[in-house]
Structures are given as structure tokens and as C-alpha cells.
Amino acid sequence: MPGSDPTAAAEPSGPTRPPQRRSSLPRTGLPKTASTAAPSAPAKPQPEASSSAPAAPAAPAPAAAPRTPTPAAPRTPAPAVPRTPTPAAPRTPTPTVPRTPTPARPAATAASSTAPRKLGPLTPAQWVGVAVILALAIVGLVTIVVLAVRWFLGLGFMRDFVHTYPGQYALPNGAPVGFPAWVGWQHFFNAFLIVLIIRTGLTVRRDKRPNAFWTSKRNPKHKISLTLWLHQGLDVLWLVNGTVFVVLLFSTGQWMRLVPTDWSVFPNALTAALKYASLNWPTDDGWVNYNSLQQLAYFVTVFIAAPLAAITGVRMSGVWPKEAKRLNAAYPVEWARAVHFPVMIYFVAFIIVHVALVFATGALRNLNHMYGGQDAVNWVGFWIFVLSLVVMAAGWVAARPLIVAPIARVFGKVTAR
Q: How far apart are the first and last CA of the chain?
């Protein structure tokens, strides 16, 4: 056809490859590959088609979509598809077993194994330190008191006072000398009973939930702890022993040794006390006459402290009539409780001081006076005293439900809690 390119009109006999056109796109700075560097081989001339067949208009080569060089796509980071956090299957928190003291235990046990053992709030070494400090403090205090009292007794007016009141006064005419055997026996029974009374009294005070109870046969409603029953039983024996002692005391004249018969007993007691404090013991002649401080102490113990213990004890016991309103109003049980315990403390203090002075002012002679019935310095009274201590210790150990229960059953019913 006129105006058409015969070569372009000729239909290729075989499948033809659309002519590769050079891209008119600007050359990017891509590295030259082998295909672009080497000149393309000349295309073979295609055979002409017969002129009779009308040449089919050449299909316009699909304008090879101008290859806009995929501008090295500024790698817009693939729109970080907001990773909607794959609902991490709501991690039901694996019950992190609250590691309670598990890890701490090994450390604690390790620490406890290395930590020093404690006795109460302090370690044994600390207790020793406290004991040493207390001992030094006591020694220092005693030293200061002794020196101060000796200085005081050395003053002029005190010399005159001591000369006038030497520490004891003469007993009335006819006062007995020495100690009869019954005084020794009464002394032993009294000491044995008072020790057990103090033991059971402290147990009753401390024991909030007793293990055994005693019920009276006559009054089934009267139920008390077994220890309280023993305490009250010992009280009765102690009162019987005290009554016998007082009767013998006044029937034999021995009362003159314990009951003050002269007002000078007080200034003489002061002199005796100062002599004890100075460690220059007062003249000790207990076989004939006690010094005035001893006499006052024994008088208070026998005629004041003992009756107070008995009266307050009866008020708190089951013997007291609970329904007597006027009597209860006149003598409230609270008063009895307020007095009973301090009286017990007095007895404890008296026993400690009494025994200490017996040993400090001539143990063998003093023990012979009370236990041997003689004014001599030998070991007879000492060994009798040791035997009495053994009996007291046996009674202390025996004061327990296992041994007391069979005796208590004779007088009532014993039950366990």
C-alpha cells in the first residue's frame, strides 16, 4: 500500500517477537547489564509477503508501558501493618505461684544455722555479759554502802548512840535460855510447809488452764483446780502447825525471845542494821538473846505476816460464805487479793535474808542452835539441816498431779480437763 513500509507490512511466517524498542526513559544509574552493554544482533530480514493479500495493519506494539523504573521504591517500610497484636491469647498468667518464702527459706535456714542460739532476748554470751555487769554493779554498790556506813558510825554522835543502844536489850527476868526440841521440829515443819505453799501459790497464779480439778463430795458445785486444792490443804497444815507453835511459845516463856518488851527495841534495831551494813556483824548470841533487828523480824513474821496470809487466804477460798452480802461488802475479795501476794513476797524475801545471815554469821553454831538443840560448834546441826533440805526437795518434786491425785480422791473427786 502506498505510503506503508513493505517490510513492516510483511507478515512474518512464524510467530514474531514485537520489536524491542529502546526505552526513551532516562537512564537511571542502574548498572549496565549484559543485555544493554552488548549491541543487539541485527534482525534477520523477514520474507516479503505476497502483494495480493492486503497487508493487515500492524498491531501497534503495546507501548511497553513506559517502564518507569520502579524508582527503587523508597522502601516505604511496608506499612508496618500495625500489628494489631495478635490478641496474644490473653495469657491467663500462669498462676505464678506466689513464691512465698520458698526462696527465702533456704536463706533463713542458712542464717538460722549460723546465727547464735538465743535464750530469750539475748544469746548465752550476752547473758554472761549482763551477769558480769550486774555483779560488778552490786559489788560496787555494796562497797560504797559499807564505806559510807563505816564513816557514819565513826562520827562522834554515832559512837555515843551505839554505846547507848548496842543492838539488843536485856530480856525480862525468867526468860528461858536455849531452844527446846519442839522449837527445832516446829521450825522444820514450818519451813517445809511454807516452801510448798509458795510453790503451789505461784503455780496457781501462773496456771490459766489447769489440767486436773478437784470436786468436793459434800458440795459437787465446788470445783477447783487440783493445785489450788493442794495449796489450800497445805495452808490448813501450816495454820495447825502455827497454832501449836504459838500455844507452846506462850506456855513455855519462849515468847519473850520474839515479842518486844521494851521500846528500846527500835533504836537497838537501827544499831544492829547499821552494823550489818558495815559488815561488822552485831554480837551474835542467839542461844540466849536475839539482837533487836532479829527480834522485830521474827515478831513481824509470826504475828503479822502469818495472820495476814491466813486471813486473806480464807477470804479467797471456798470456805468463805459467798452469799453473805454484808460480810462481802465489809471485806471485799479485791482487798484480800491485793494483800495476799505481797505477803508471799515478804516470806520469800525473809527466807532468803534469814538463810544468808545464818550462814554469814557462824553457820555451824547457828544451825546447831536450831536443829541440834545445843550451843556448840560442830557438824550435828549442819547434817540435820541437809537432811531437812532433802525432804523439802522431795516434797517440791512430789507436788504434782500424778502424786497428789490419789490423795485428793480420798476427800473428793478428781477429774481431768
A: 136
Q: If you ran DSSP here, which 8-state letter would residue 331 be given?
A: S
Q: Calculate helix-pair angle for 333-360, 181-206, nearest 10 degrees.
A: 130
Task: Quote the CA–CA distance of 350 and 358 in Å, as a whole number.
Answer: 12
Radius of gyration of the chain (CA): 58
Q: What are phi and psi of 63, to 5 degrees?
A: -50, 90
83 occurs within a structural domain: no
Q: Domain span at residue 217?
A: 154-416
Q: pLDDT tens digits, residue range 177-192?
A: 999 999 999 999 999 9
Grid coordinates belonging to 347: 516470806
Q: Does residue 50 fall inside a structural domain?
A: no
Average pLDDT, the chain: 80
Mean pLDDT of 75-92: 55
> Whole-prediction pTM value?
0.69
Closest to 296 measured CA to CA, from 319, 267, 322, 337: 267
Residues 6+ apart with CB under 8 A from 213: 223, 224, 225, 226, 414, 415, 416, 417
Which three cell numbers, joined as nine digits, stand for 1? 500500500
Residue 89: the pLDDT is 52
Q: What is the pLDDT of residue 230?
A: 93
